[in-house]
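I am writing to request your help with a piece of structural work I have in hand. Thank you for your consideration; the sequence and its tokens are set out here:
=====
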Amino acid sequence: MDFHDRKPIYQQIREQIEDQILDGRLKEEDKAPSTTQLVSFYKVNHLTAAKGVNELVEENILYKRRGIGMFVASGAVEKLINKRRKVFGEEYITELVREAEKLHITERELLEMIRERMRK
């Protein structure tokens, strides 16, 4: 996590949990880190950590078991992939195309540049 990132800390915490789900470190139905664990690990305020976790609960990525903790919901991976793909298209691809247009990079050149990067 990079506290120098422009994103709010709660959002960085949330994305760290999402990344752990997407890369398989946290599997569906696994117990997720508690807010207390997140506070201790990231050295942040309890409300900051809770905000990131609560957003994941609102999106049905995590769910609460009263008195036991937070767990990764069934279907969380698919929901996260769909969400991230949408964001990827809206944020990264749109910006990439805009910059390519400014630099007069053709579609063909851009696709070749992408293919080269993906081979690495």
About this structure: The two ends are 25 Å apart (CA to CA). The helical segments are 9-22, 35-42, 46-58, 76-102, 107-119.
